[in-house]
Amino acid sequence: MGRAARRAPPEPAGQRLPPLAVTMGDPAGIGPDITLAAWLQRRAYALAPFVVLGDAEMLAARAVALGLDVPVETVTDLGQAASLFDSALPLWSIPCATPVVAGTPDARNAPAVIAAIEAAVLAVQAGTARAVVTNPIAKSVLMAAGFAHPGHTEFLGALAEAHFGVSGAVPVMLLASAEVKVVPLTVHIPLAKVAEAISPDAIITTARILHRALVSDFGIAAPRIAVTGLNPHAGEDGKIGDEDARLIAPAVAALAREGLAATGPHPADTLFHAAARATYDAVLAMYHDQALIPIKTLAFDTGVNVTLGLPFVRTSPDHGTAFSIAGTGAARASSLIEALKLADAMARRRAVRPAESVR
Fold first, then answer.
1. pLDDT, position 261
2. DSSP 26
3. CA 248, CA 273: separation in Å to the nearest integer?
4. pLDDT tens digits, residue range 10-57?
């Protein structure tokens, strides 16, 4: 991944809180657009100082193209970020290999995208940043350059093992908004393989991680977790598949015996209306779309992707690269702003009450 991926920024100066480390994401996508827009709205939303890890020329050029008055200032010490943040957008330089064209991804820039993610994790490990906030990546572009992970979540798990000495990290994707919090048990796998990937152990492990995060990161003293079924009507007493009774119900019963307020399996189609949402704090769903369709319907512009089960805080906007509108000014920064706010809140809670465990 190159030298940029393996060096942590130096220790911060002064007594200010370290900044949030924001990765550039795919530079041809809307990550640069929403980062610039978020900085312009820093006072309106009382955003904590953040530093961008990415290409300075690309970011400055995008600001000009969008007509945004955002001075970008390269820093060599992340301790400078907080004092600069009010007057300029601090940037830790990770240059792209080839000039960036908004809306046109280029696999030659994949190493810089990957390096920015790893450098952000290293900054948190070194104490020079408080949390990682990642802008959207295009997995197909990274894979074309040899990226070996299905997505951000899995890569961050590998980085936790490599740089924090965590053995067997279990990264868990949580999508969070004011309306609902959801976790997909299985993520980036074909729908045809979901049933074989479900097991009582996987449900129990994921629910435990979710429970701990709801307590330590979201301040919910006694979290209530609703677990969906897999099949329509949660299997309807075995008439529509047996996975619900054979795999999911025993796991929920085991969690209840441990003292977790877990219920289910619930039919997924009746779990997300307003009255149902009042009965739980988070949902553990069985597959990607079962979890993501509800939150993207209820909170498309404000949902936040959070990775649980890691020894560091990571949040991200709950949307993709949107190459078709990159550089046009049409991208909205609301999800990134929510990701920045949540990363700040989570990092502050962990500073007071560290997570019991990452597993």
1. 98
2. S
3. 22
4. 444 445 799 999 999 999 999 999 999 999 999 999 999 999 999 999
* Cα separation values, 108 from 27, 146, 148, Å: 11, 11, 16
Per-residue exposure over 215-246, b if at least 16 CB sit within 10 Å of its own CB, e if not? bbbbeeeebebbbbbbbeebbeeeeebebbbe
Helices 31-40 + 56-66 axis angle, to 10 = 70
Q: Which pLDDT band, with edges at 50, 70 and 90, does 150 fall under?
A: confident
| Six token digits for residue 349 | 């809670």
The one-letter amino acid code at 315 reads: T
- Give the separation between CA 260 and CA 134, rounded to whole angstroms: 31
pLDDT tier for residue 145 given thresholds of 50, 70 and 90 = confident
At what angle are helices 110-126 and 152-164 packed, to 10 degrees?
50
Residues 150 and 187: their CA atoms lie apart, in Å, by 9
pLDDT value of residue 7: 46
**What is the DSSP track for 115-163?**
HHHHHHHHHHHHTS-SEEEEPP--HHHHHHTT--SSSHHHHHHHHHHHH
**Amino acid (1-letter code) at residue 105:** P
Tallying the residues shown for the chain, one arrives at: 359
More confident residue, 270 or 358: 270
The region, left, alpha or beta by phi > 0 then psi within -120 to 50, assigned to residue 141 is alpha
Can you give the pLDDT at residue 12? 44
Other CB atoms closer than 10 Å to residue 86's CB: what's the count?
A: 9
Q: What is the DSSP string of 74-108?
A: E-SSGGGHHHHTTTSEEEEE---SS--BTTB--GG
What does the alpha-carbon distance between residue 308 and residue 93 come to, in Å, rounded to a whole number? 28
Q: For the range 265-269, what are the long-range contacts, defined as Cβ-Cβ under 8 Å and sequence gap of 24 or more?
A: 265/227, 265/228, 265/229, 265/230, 265/234, 265/235, 266/226, 266/227, 266/228, 266/229, 266/234, 267/228, 267/229, 267/232, 267/233, 267/234, 268/228, 268/229, 268/234, 269/232, 269/233
pLDDT digits (tens, 9 = 90+) for 167-211: 888 899 999 999 999 999 999 899 999 999 999 999 999 999 999
